[in-house]
Every structure is written in C-alpha cells, then in structure tokens.
Design brief:
With 169 residues, the protein is mostly helical. It has helices spanning 8-22, 40-61, 65-87, 98-107, 113-131, 139-159. Pfam families: DUF8154.
C-alpha cells in the first residue's frame, strides 16, 4: 500500500472513506432520504428518481454537462435494473457491468432489440468519450441525455406492476 511518501491528508481521507463505507464506529447511520431499503428493485428505482432530481438541479445551474451526462446514464441503468428486478428473477448482483443493463432491457422485453442496442451503443461510444475521453460535452448533448433518461425512467416505472414507489411525481 503506502510507501510512506503519500500525503497524510490523502491517507487520512482514504481511511475515513473506507470506514464510512464499512459503517464502522459511526454511531447512528444517516442514510439518504428517499432511497427505499425495502427491496432491491425499489432501491434501484428510487436511486434513479434521486439521480433525475440531481440532473434537474445541475441543469438549473447551467454548464455542468459532463456531470449531467454521467448522472443520466446512471439514472437510465437504475431504471432498467429496477424493472428487471421487479419483473424477473434477476438479482442485483447480475448488474455489475454497465452494458448488461441495456442487453437485459431487450432480453426481458422492456425495449425492442434495436432500441436497446442503440442505448448500449450510445453508452459505449459516448459515455466513455464524454467522461474519460478528451471530448468536451455540449449543452445539446446534456439536454438530449436528460430527455432520454426521463423517458426511460417514466417508461420503466409505467411497466412495473407495483406502483407508488417512484419519487418523481
């Protein structure tokens, strides 16, 4: 691990972050409001709702296109996962690969093959470039991703038999 030359501030912050995720010695844990802990599909769905709320907040601040695009992809994936977990025997652990969500969206009948492939390609070609690559995201891209994330979320929510979980209304 450390050879003794890493900054103390980084090492202290790293220890604190590790402890925070392990929830060790923290007393009463304060979880994020609105995220359901009842069932995995509800957790994923309410995470998507909260991500879309963040997108709205970022969009109102103007200019955070990279963050908007990244959060939109996350909201899309959480929405697809929520549907899959609610309507099939899928397990949350099945969704460790980002692209699997898009593939599974077609396999379980949420979207037609062409639509699921197009979303998967959008992810693999553009998310990587906007987040890791040298590309500079645009306002138009951020707005288009916001529309896509909202549409996917609303459709997934409308297809889940059990209602009343979505926080977006």
């Amino acid at each position: 691990m450390s050879n003794g030359s890493d900054p103390t501030a980084v090492l202290t912050a790293l220890d604190r972050a590790q402890d925070a995720f392990e929830m060790v010695g923290r007393g009463r844990t304060a979880f994020e409001d609105g995220i359901s802990a009842d069932e995995d599909w509800k957790t994923q769905l309410t995470k998507a709702c909260r991500l879309l709320e963040v997108v709205d907040t970022l969009q109102s601040q103007d200019g955070y296109y990279t963050a908007v695009i990244e959060v939109c992809f996350g909201a899309i994936e959480r929405s697809i996962e929520a549907y899959a977990l609610a309507m099939t025997n899928d397990m949350l652990q099945d969704f460790q690969d980002h692209q699997f969500s898009y593939e599974r969206a077609h396999q379980i009948g949420l979207f037609e093959r062409e639509t699921a492939e197009a979303m998967k390609n959008l992810y693999s070609e553009n998310r990587t470039e906007s987040y890791y690559g040298g590309g500079r995201p645009t306002e138009e891209q951020a707005e288009a991703m916001t529309d896509l994330a909202g549409a996917v979320h609303q459709f997934a929510v409308s297809q889940i038999r059990e209602g009343g979980v979505c926080l977006c209304d």
